[in-house]
Amino acid sequence: MTRTLNSQSRPASRFTARLLARVWRSQRGAAAIEFVLVVPLMMLVLLGFTELYMYMRTVSNLERTAFTLADSIGQMQTVIDTTATDNSNNLGAIWAAAAILAAPSTLSTKGGVVITSVCDASTSCTTPIATPAQSAGAGTPMITWQRKAPWNTAAMATQETASNILPSTWPFRSGDTAIVVEVFYTYNPFAMTSAFWKNPPGQMTIYERVYVRQRDGQPLLIKAS
């Protein structure tokens, strides 16, 4: 009687073992499929958030660079037209400061800076104004001088032209002066994958422009070195 029970239980135990093995193999297969589907999606989402952060950081750096340069130049009375950096009023020192301010963005290899001095056409923009106080009448903006960084590329052309100097909403009165700082930067997306993904799509030029008035109301003069 005992032998009969044992002989009947053995096939049942083998069947159960096979069934459990099949279930285990099916669960492992499902887990593998889930891994293959979910992990790439998670990596894409992570890469997207990282890329968004990198882009926003670059834009913020360029905005800060433009505002800081404009604020500093707005306090100057004279700019010296030289690439030397031994004087803070030298254009060379201004270009060097722009590259430092834009870090970690490499402005000196992928970007550009343009400075434009604007003055009222009714005044002499090459000599100090005797009475820099502005009148209530509207002035006529005129470009006095314009300089660009020596590392600007041809594609980074200024948008400050004789017909497009100041926004119509920016009040420019008789006897007024202004400084315009333009900052360019060629942004390459997916920089973290550049080691194995050359020339990814989506390259763009980030452009920032800032307008300020001269603190002393005088036109910003430029002199040779």
Question: Describe it for me?
Answer:
With 225 residues, this protein is of the alpha+beta class. Helix content is 39%, strand content 20%. The chain has one domain. The strands form 2 sheets. The protein has a 4-stranded antiparallel β-sheet with strand order 3-2-4-5. 19% of the residues are buried. The N terminus is likely disordered.
Question: In what order do the strands lie side by side in the largest sheet?
Answer: 3-2-4-5
Low-confidence parts lasting 5 or more residues at pLDDT below 50? Answer: 1-5
Report the sheet-strand fraction: 15-25%
Biggest sheet statistics: 4 strands, antiparallel
Tally of helical runs: 3
Number of domains: 1
Query: What Rg is obtained from the alpha carbons, in whole angstroms?
Result: 33 Å
**Order of SSEs:** HEHHEEEEE
Query: What integer is the average pLDDT?
Result: 82
Secondary-structure-derived class: alpha+beta
Q: Report the count of strand segments.
A: 6
Distance between the termini: 116 Å
Helix content: 25-40%
